[in-house]
Design a protein that fits this description.
- It is a single chain.
- With 161 residues, this protein is mainly alpha-helical.
- It has nine helices and three strands, in the order αααααααβααββ.
- The protein has three domains: 46 residues, Arc Repressor Mutant, subunit A, CATH 1.10.10; 47 residues, Orthogonal Bundle (Arc Repressor Mutant, subunit A), CATH 1.10.10; 53 residues.
- It has a three-stranded antiparallel sheet with strand order 1-3-2.
Length: 161
Amino acid sequence: MELHEPPARQAFAAACRLLARRAHGCLELKQKLDRKGFSPEVVAATLARLCQQGYLDDLSTARRWAEHLAGQRLCGRARITSYLLHKGMDRDIIDAVHQELWQRLSEAALARQALQKRFAGAAPLGKAVTFLKSRGFSAEVIYQVVGKGLDEADGRQTVLK
């Protein structure tokens, strides 16, 4: 890139390089362009151009991130919400993503899968609950998963696989 290129062109090129590496939300990309020293007007115009051309779409980006967190990392609703908020997604987008995601997936099934992946055999009740809470599963989902598999025959509470 030449030094005498207009700032709008430089900002667009910088944004395209960032988007080529991975998906970004509008707020996250704005912050990165701001840190690179582009004026607020140039950043706003660049973001508008990227949105208009279909390179920047918060809803599809949030969907991809949520799919990854649920499908690959086996995270629950709260963890996904926290991640999307951290990335600067609007609450309306997060709600829409959750509605789509949880129509197709069972949060309880994901929680069971996460437990099976984390613990080879029977998991102590306290560890299972703490683990599922850290993955963003609600108390209701944790009870669905852990409450049905309690084995108290030997005096210890464990979750059976």
